[in-house]
Structures are given as structure tokens and as C-alpha cells.
Amino acid sequence: MNSKIQIGTCGISSTKAAYATLFSCVEIQQTFYQPPQLSTLERWRNEVPTDFEFTIKAWQLITHPAKSPTYKRLKRSLSEVERAGVGYFKPTSIVDEAWQVTLSCAQVLKAKTVLFQCPASFTQKPEHISHLVDFFSRIDRKGLTFCWEPRGTWDKPVINDLCKDLQLWHVVDPFTSATVTPEHSYFRLHGRQGWRYKYESSELADLTELLPTDKPAYVFFNNSHMKADALLFKQLLEAAPR
């Protein structure tokens, strides 16, 4: 087994300490909707072993427009100017502020990796590409790994060029689409036929073959059976000849 492969779920339904006895990593969701107080994140960090890894989703103010239904969970009030300036990696002060908040969250949690999940409306048009390039070219990465999940209509060669030029990992559900960065895999499994889907052992066995043998990789389950499926996948991966 590749010991560099991190397996976990998107979010935690139990205590952090109990979760950390089962998995080596978790993808934090709260930082996307409404980043918690840094004191809360510091407590989370102290509840798990030092080698446990948090990855975080970048705050939605960076990636999603204000009309997104996800903003219903935003506790901060936005002015009309701010509402017009959020999302799509726009070169605005509110997006830059959202990045600083995201960065602070990552630093407190000692996260190594940040996921930028885009809405389906973030499509392959020149304005969006320009904003994406500008954002990742100007921000201070602080040594973090950046992962990008485009969910709109994009051509694979365009994604490949952007990931190469901007040093991004291409995030996919591997049962839906192939990553263009197979040596830098970040998989998010949403359920093949919807959120209630439970993966078969044979499917998860196939998944083990898609992972690099000696490179860091992440596999996160985001379906209703995510804990059971992640545990089964962990067992299969540990038993697989690599």
C-alpha cells in the first residue's frame, strides 16, 4: 500500500477524536460555507493526533457567486458591492479577503491542502479563465497544495494546461471523469447514482488501481454511506498488492 494515500470523508459526523481512530484525514466543509472562529479550529486541531491531516474547502466567497443557494448558510451580511464582487475568483477586495480567511483557517489546522470547488456555472469562458489565472498567480500560497474541482463544461486540454501552468491538482469523482493530473490525485466520490449510493467492493477494488503507487493522494467519500465505504476502501487498499 502507498502510505502517502489519505482516506477519509467529506465532513465528520462523530467526534474528531473518534474519527481520527479510523481515518488519517478529513475534508472540512465548514470553511466553505462559513469559516469557524480560529479558536474553534484550534480546538479541533488539538483533538486529534499530530499526524492527522485536515484538508479544507476554500470559502465560497472565492468561488461561488452570491446567487448560489450555498449562501443561505453564510452568516455574514454582504453589501451590494460585495455581492457583486464575490465568486469566480474575481480580482476584488472581497475575494482577496476571503482568501486571507481561508489561509488563516489552513494555518491554524496545519492543513497542507486547500480544495477550490467551483460551481457548474464557472464555465470555460475567457473571463473565467482570466480570473482563475490572475488569482492563482497573485496569491501567496504559503507552501500549500491547491486542488481545483471544475464542475462546469471544460475541455480536458484546457484543464491540463491550467493545472500545469498554475500548479493545481485536478479534482474529480473518478467514476465520472478521469483526472488530468494522475500523479497528483484528489478524488471526491459523490455516489454513482446519487448521494444515497453505496459502493460495491468490486468498484472500490477498481479504484485502488487508479491511485499513484508512490505519490501523495487523497480519497474522500461524500455519499450517505461515506463512513462505511471509506473503511471498506481502506481495507481493500491495505490488502492490495502495490
Keywords:
single chain; 242 residues; alpha/beta; TIM Barrel; 8-stranded parallel sheet; 8 strands; 16% strand; globular
Head-to-tail CA distance between termini: 6 Å
CATH class: Alpha Beta
pLDDT averaged over residues: 95
Point out poorly predicted stretches. Answer: none
Q: Specify the CATH architecture.
A: Alpha-Beta Barrel
CATH superfamily caption: Protein of unknown function UPF0759
Largest sheet: 8 strands, parallel
Strand order of the largest sheet: 1-8-7-6-5-4-3-2
Number of domains: 1
Present the secondary structure layout.
Layout: E1 5-9, H1 16-20, E2 25-28, H2 30-33, H3 38-46, E3 53-57, H4 60-63, H5 80-85, H6 93-109, E4 113-117, H7 126-138, E5 145-149, H8 156-166, E6 168-172, E7 185-189, H9 201-208, E8 217-221, H10 226-239
Parallel strand pairs: 1-8, 2-3, 3-4, 4-5, 5-6, 6-7, 7-8
Helix pairs in contact: 3-6, 9-10
Pfam families: DUF72
Protein name: DUF72 domain-containing protein
Give a summary of the structure in a few sentences.
It contains 10 helices and 8 strands. It has helices at residues 16-20, 30-33, 38-46, 60-63, 80-85, 93-109, 126-138, 156-166, 201-208, 226-239, and strands spanning 5-9, 25-28, 53-57, 113-117, 145-149, 168-172, 185-189, 217-221.
